[in-house]
Structures are given as C-alpha cells and as structure tokens.
Amino acid sequence: MKLELLMKIPERGKDEGLAAYAQRLSELYSKTYSTEIRKHRGQFFTPEQVSTFMVGIFEILHKTIRLLDPGAGAGILSAA
C-alpha cells in the first residue's frame, strides 16, 4: 500500500519552484513512513530553508557548475 502511494508522485505545480517541489516530495515520503523507519534507514531530509541558506553561502562565478549532492533524496540541495 505504501509503495502505491509513492508511485503516485505528484507533478510539480505551475508556479512551484524546484526546492519547494522537493520539499513537498520529502514531506509526502515522511508522512508515508514513520520516523522510526526513516531513522533506522538513516533517511533525513534537509528543510528547504536550510538548503536555500546553504546555497546562499557560495558565490557562483561560472555559468556551468558541477554539484555533488551527497544525499540526493528528494534533490532539495541540488534544486536550491
């Protein structure tokens, strides 16, 4: 049943930014699985505000960048 819920991934809203969409996906996943299960699996999601803050620390000097998102759960760090 939980797999069925996750297979119905909602589409991104027309005016929804990538970071907000990733936040919504992580919230959906968090509602589907208990804190205990996610903790046991080592699954934690970075809040949108933290991701946006982290991105704001860096000065992007080039049009093309390489980014390593170590978690890549819902992709919120990459999206921010």
Notes on the protein architecture:
The protein has 80 residues and is mainly α. The protein has one domain (2-8, 19-79). The protein has helices at 2-7, 18-32, 35-41, 48-57, 76-79. The N and C termini lie far apart (31 Å). The model has no long low-confidence stretch (mean pLDDT 78).
- Mean of pLDDT: 78
SSE pattern: HHHHH
Number of discrete domains: 1
Rg of Cα set: 14 Å
Distance between the termini: 31 Å
Could you describe the largest sheet, including whether it forms a barrel?
none
Number of strands: 0
Q: Give the overall shape, derived from the CA principal axes.
A: globular
- Broad structural category: mainly alpha
Beta content comes to: under 5%
Unreliable residue runs? none
Helix segment tally:
5
What labels would you give this structure?
mainly alpha; globular; 80 residues
Question: Secondary-structure map with pairings?
Answer:
Blueprint: H1 2-7, H2 18-32, H3 35-41, H4 48-57, H5 76-79
How is this structure best summarized?
The protein has helices spanning 2-7, 18-32, 35-41, 48-57, 76-79.
